[in-house]
Write a structure and sequence with these properties.
elongated; transmembrane; Ion channel; two-stranded antiparallel sheet; membrane
C-alpha cells in the first residue's frame, strides 16, 4: 500500500510540476498553474514587508528573489516526484558497496545526481528496469535545467526591454506624441507574455519602472485624443493579469490598480 502511494504521489507531483513548467517556459502562458501564484505570493510578502518604507535596495533584488523561489519550486518538485517514484520499490536503488537498500536520503541524493547528471553517487539501480527508468529521470533533469536557464535569460531580457521603454517614455518632453513608441510597446507586451515574471523586477528609480510608466503613457495617450487612447489600450490588452473593461475611463482605473499591485513598498524616485 505504501509503495503504491509513493508511486501515485510521485507521478502526480511530476505531472503537476511538469505541466506548470512547460506552460511557463515554452507555453507563453502568463497565467500558469502554480508558479505564477508562488511568484505573486512572494512579491506580495516583499511588498507587505516594505509597505510603509522606501525599498530601493530590495527593489533591485525583488525579481531575483521571485525567480529563485520559482526555480527552486520546479527543481525541488521534480526531485521529490522522482524520489517518491524510486521509493515505490524498496529495492530500486541500492548502495554501491554494500548492496543494501537505499533509504529516503540516499534515494533523494541518487535522484539529485540523476537530475543534475553529476554522476558519482554512492548508489546504483538494482536492475535493468530501474536502470531504464532512470534514463527518463536524467532526460527530465536535463530538460528542466536547460529550459529553466533559458527562461531566466529570456526574463532578464524582458526586464531590460521594459526598463529601456520606460526610460524612453520619460525622456520625451511634456506633451510629446507618444505614438512613436507604440511599436516598442507592442514588443514589450509580447515579451512579457512569454516571460511574465519580468514584472516582478522592480527598480530603485521611478523612471525605470515599467508598470508606472504605462500609467504615465495612458495619461499621455488620453490627452492626445480618443483614437490614440484606444490604440494604447488595444496594445496593452494582452499584459499578464490585466483584464481591461470596455470603457476607457474604467480601463485607466484598472491599469492604475494593476500597476499598484506591482509596486514594491513606498519606493522613492
Amino acid at each position: 500500500m505504501t509503495s503504491a502511494l509513493h508511486l501515485v504521489s510521485g507521478i502526480a507531483i511530476l505531472a503537476l510540476v511538469s505541466v506548470d513548467f512547460i506552460l511557463a517556459t515554452i507555453g507563453a502562458a502568463p497565467r500558469v498553474i502554480l508558479s505564477d501564484r508562488i511568484a505573486r505570493t512572494v512579491f506580495a510578502i516583499l511588498a507587505h514587508a516594505t509597505k510603509h518604507r522606501p525599498a530601493k535596495v530590495l527593489a533591485r533584488m525583488s525579481g531575483v528573489i521571485v525567480m529563485v523561489v520559482v526555480a527552486a519550486f520546479w527543481i525541488a518538485g521534480t526531485a521529490l516526484g522522482w524520489t517518491l517514484v524510486v521509493l515505490s520499490d524498496p529495492s530500486a536503488v541500492v548502495l554501491t558497496q554494500s548492496a543494501e537498500q537505499a533509504g529516503f536520503w540516499d534515494a533523494l541524493a541518487h535522484v539529485g545526481h540523476l537530475l543534475s547528471t553529476l554522476g558519482g553517487a554512492i548508489t546504483r539501480p538494482s536492475g535493468t528496469f530501474w536502470n531504464a527508468v532512470e534514463v527518463l529521470a536524467g532526460v527530465n533533469g536535463m530538460v528542466v535545467l536547460t529550459l529553466a536557464v533559458s527562461f531566466i535569460l529570456a526574463t532578464v531580457q524582458s526586464v531590460q526591454a521594459g526598463r529601456a521603454f520606460a526610460a524612453l517614455l520619460h525622456s520625451l518632453p511634456p506633451g510629446a506624441d507618444v505614438t512613436g513608441l507604440f511599436d516598442r510597446l507592442a514588443d514589450v507586451v509580447a515579451s512579457l507574455n512569454s516571460a511574465p515574471f519580468a514584472l516582478y523586477y522592480s527598480h530603485g528609480r521611478a523612471e525605470r519602472r515599467l508598470p508606472e510608466a504605462l500609467v504615465v503613457m495612458a495619461r499621455a495617450a488620453a490627452a492626445q485624443g480618443p483614437k490614440t487612447e484606444a490604440r494604447f489600450y488595444a496594445l496593452i490588452s494582452d499584459l499578464p493579469q490585466l483584464d481591461l473593461p470596455d470603457e476607457n475611463a474604467d480601463r485607466f482605473a484598472v491599469l492604475q490598480d494593476w500597476a499598484a499591485q506591482r509596486r514594491l513598498g513606498a519606493l522613492q524616485a
